[in-house]
Amino acid sequence: MKDNRFTLADIRNAVSAGVLSEEAFDRLEGFLGEQSLETAETEKFTLFRGMNDIFIALGICALTIGWFVLWGLLANGPAFWIAPPIAMIAYVALAEYIAGKLKASLPSIAIMAALGATLMIYAVAIYMSLAGPAGQLSDLDTVIDFGQRSMNVLVFVAVIGFAFQLGFFLRYRLPVSFALIAAGLVGVFWSALMATFGPAAEPYIPYMITATGIILLALAIFIDSRDPKRINGWAECAFWLYVFGAPMTIHSIAATFEAAALAMIPVIIVAMVLSLILDRRSPIISGLIYVGYLLQSGFEGAEIDPSMTIVLVCFIVGGLVMAFGVGWQRARHILLAPFEHHPLRRYLPPS
Question: What is the three-class DSSP state of 117?
Fold first, then answer.
């Protein structure tokens, strides 16, 4: 099929050949510039490239369900210990082809989750057989329950999970793995604190979650600042850091202040402005969830019919989402125009 796409250089050649006037070229160039302002999109990520990726991911999920059911049936026998290494080898072979060769993100995430879960549960089972009470291991449920009850095991699992995510990212460069590496590193720190201080650390969990979210957001902002035009693959790594970091930060603040309006309204405004400045939707999405919550609380206080409350909340939140979606680039341009020549402007995506 013939490619009918033309560049400005092609059109400039047409002007030189007398096919198009200079005035018409200037008008066309201005029009295309305005169009690019409206349609520019820098927050791109490729979770799946088509139905085939979804098809493969569904197949992997079905295989994984079958594998864990089979593993549970093999309890109290030597096959319980032999089968997991075989399954992990099979998952690695799949990862080499799907994540390494095909570079298919969604199926790779499914493989990563299945392989990581198998590895960590198997590690807990080994720990349980060596350090746990004799004869306690009966099925997968007892292994998982043992891992949840023992703080030492949580530290052990957190370290294994972090090492696994690090290895998976270094081997396959899967962007979501990078965010999980950061989260896993903090998870090791968390579990170590909980193992050291026990229940005394529980009141500080919301603050730890907030700090973790802020760390992930700071790392994402740093990565974005190194590549404002988001040309290389690190932009997608930053995307996943925002996906994890924004909800952790906003939700933990909401939990700390019991989602009080006086606390949440400034947080939501900051999230919206930050989203526009950074050209990232994750903070604003997390903020809009609490916009809906605050609206619902307000309508309930006004004694509006519950069904109508749902309608009003959906209409308002939906309208806000549509407004931001349609006018995103224009809003960014208006917000950042006064700072166009500021030294820090070069670290932000173009508007």
Answer: helix
- At 72, list the tokens: 């549970």
For residue 229 the two structure tokens come to: 């035009």
Task: Check if the beta carbon of residue 177 is closer than 8 Å to that of residue 210.
Answer: no
Q: Are residues 206 and 327 in contact, defined by beta-carbon separation less than 8 angstroms?
A: no
C-alpha span between 55 and 57 (Å, rounded)? 6
pTM, full prediction: 0.76
Report the distance separating Cα 299 and Cα 291, nearest Å: 12
Burial of 41 per CB tally in 10 Å (0-12, 13-18, 19+): exposed
Please name the residues in contact with 253: beta carbons below 8 A apart, sequence gap of 6 or more: 210, 263, 264, 267
Interval 219-252: pLDDT, tens: 999 999 998 888 777 888 888 899 888 888 888 7
User: In what helix (H) or strand (E) does residue 310 lie, and over which residues does it extend?
Assistant: helix 306-336
What is the per-residue pLDDT for 1?
39
Distance CA 19, CA 332 (A): 38
Whole-angstrom CA distances from 77 to 80, 82, 127 are: 6, 9, 17
- Contacts (Cβ under 8 Å, ≥6 apart) of 142: 128, 136
pLDDT digits (tens, 9 = 90+) for 293-306: 777 777 777 677 77
Rounded to a whole number of angstroms, the CA Rg of the chain reads 26
What is the residue-wise DSSP string for 60-80? HHHHHHHHHHHHHHT-SSTHH
Q: Which pLDDT tens digit goes with each residue over 138-156?
A: 678 788 887 777 777 888 8
Q: Is 48 left (phi over 0), alpha (psi -120 to 50) or beta?
A: beta
